[in-house]
Amino acid sequence: MKSSAPPAPRDTRLIELWSLREDTTVETAADDPGTGLVSTRWDEIRLPIADPVISRALERMTYGPVSLDNVLPGFSDTGSIPGDPRRAALRATLESVRHAVIRTLALADGTEQLAVVPIVREARFTPGMPPADAVHRLSRFATLRVGARDMILESPLSSHRVLLHTAQAMWLVSCYVRPTSVLDTARLLDVPLDVVRTAVGYLEASGMLVPGARAATPAAGGDPYPVTFAEDRDPVLEHWSPRELMLHNRSRPGLHDEPLGRAAAQTVRAAREHPAPDGAPFALPVPDLDLVLARDPRLTTVLESRRSVRADGGRPLSLAQLGELLYRSARARPAAGRPYPSAGSVYPLELYVTVAGSAELPRGAYHYDPDGHTLFPLRAEPHLVDALLGEAAANAGLSEEPPVLISMTARFRRMSTAFPGSAYSVLLKEVGALQQTLYLVSTAMGIGPCALAFGDTATSARAFRLDWRAESGVGEFVLAALPTGVGSAEHAGADGPGGPLTRGPRPEIPPST
């Protein structure tokens, strides 16, 4: 029986490859054969390219990662030709388009390990070779997610994203969930030290790994020379959570390359427009807008009097009050949208009204139909109604249930289809617009309003029988009818005291003092 020879050890050396972003093109200027036009997603750059070697290098980089040593021997300073001016010219050309250049590390056999992709016009990438005792850690803002073909490492603080092509690259990144030296990483992975130094240099230059600084003096009872990281002591960053900074960063253009903006004008309707009702709908009273206009205070008076009113012991709203409030704040107006603004007139918000109960409107949860100005009773289990009102009381700082809770949910597909990439940010702006509309109408009507900072997503989804992935809570608002003559100073919340809010004939509300 023949004995097979052991497999040859794999060459673990790393080589550098260069390419251009897929959205970058290179062509010759029509008006000057010696000028190249490099078009990126951000700009168009005119470059004097007289040497065909440099022109060929840029062209090859549009097809994928290449070793520039194969185009221009000696580019990486190994086996170079002393004084070759083309090397300097190629470096200058690549520097001019650096915001479109992808840098890739690969094994000697061509297996790509990781790639660093610029995502903003101002991207600069200058990798170094950290010493063996250098200590790094993943940035606390770095996140790892699944991409189409790779794992993607990104951070809202970075002008690059890193594509991890292999398990080995992911193992390397995983070593840095806690502070680790380059030497310890090389030992742990059993790879040559210079390989780790090169890869760590790439990850540090991309902003995914942050370098640590050892204390000059030993600490008592702990690490003899503890390592600290600048981002942990940065006063600008200390108030940001990673997920909130990423949401802010990705919801506006300028600091990333993800698609943003409005798609083709269309309103996407969710397949399930109305939750299954439990009983006959309640047709809400429609106010006489001429009478409303005659008795409403002036807008400036309402604005100056608006306060969050935490009405402990507030009275239930009458059906007429609730009907007028919803009609003036959230109904669908023919050919005019709703009273509050919605980006692209998409209107992804739905309103669910949970009431403590009165002679006119039994205790329970209802879905508001803005087209028919109607409340549809829902099959919400009593303990879930209790939970909704109890949570609202706790969040508003009340000792008793609020008479009315308005839960705002979002049908996310409507907004995400119309505004890909910025949908959630746009959605939250609409919640604020609706809440302010409710505040102003409530104040004008003499109703005590209070927006809540948050609500329980799971409770509302169960109560309204929603799939929270498709539609879930994004805002909450409580209401109470105040006794005639009772001013909001007795019930004011964090917004401070306000003028008297009364029912009946509505006099102008005097400004607060």
What kind of sheet is the major sheet?
7 strands, antiparallel
Mean pLDDT level: 87
Radius of gyration: 31 Å
Strands side by side in the biggest sheet:
14-17-16-15-18-20-19
Fraction of residues in H or I helices:
25-40%
Q: Span between N and C termini?
A: 101 Å
Task: Extract low-pLDDT stretches.
Answer: 267-272, 485-494, 496-513
Total count of helical runs of at least 4 residues: 15
Question: What percentage of amino acids are in beta strands?
Answer: 15-25%
Structural class of the helix and strand makeup?
alpha+beta
Tell me what you see in this structure:
- There is one protein chain.
- It is elongated, with a radius of gyration of 31 Å.
- The termini are far apart.
- It has 15 helices and 20 strands.
- The longest helix has 23 residues, at 423-445.
- The chain has a seven-stranded antiparallel sheet, with helices on both faces.
- The chain is 29% helix and 21% strand.
- It is an alpha+beta fold and 513 residues long.
Question: What's a concise summary of this model?
Answer:
This protein is an alpha+beta fold and about 525 residues long.
SSE blueprint and pairings:
Layout: E1 14-20, E2 25-28, E3 35-39, E4 44-48, H1 52-61, H2 68-71, H3 85-96, E5 101-107, E6 112-118, E7 135-138, E8 143-146, E9 151-154, E10 160-164, H4 167-174, E11 180-181, H5 182-189, H6 193-205, E12 209-214, E13 227-229, H7 230-233, H8 242-250, E14 282-283, H9 289-295, H10 299-305, H11 319-330, E15 349-355, E16 364-369, E17 374-377, H12 382-396, E18 404-411, H13 412-418, H14 423-445, E19 447-452, H15 457-464, E20 471-481
Antiparallel strand pairs: 1-5, 2-3, 3-4, 5-6, 6-10, 7-11, 7-12, 8-9, 9-10, 12-13, 14-17, 15-16, 15-18, 16-17, 18-20, 19-20
Helix pairs in contact: 5-6, 11-14, 12-15, 13-14
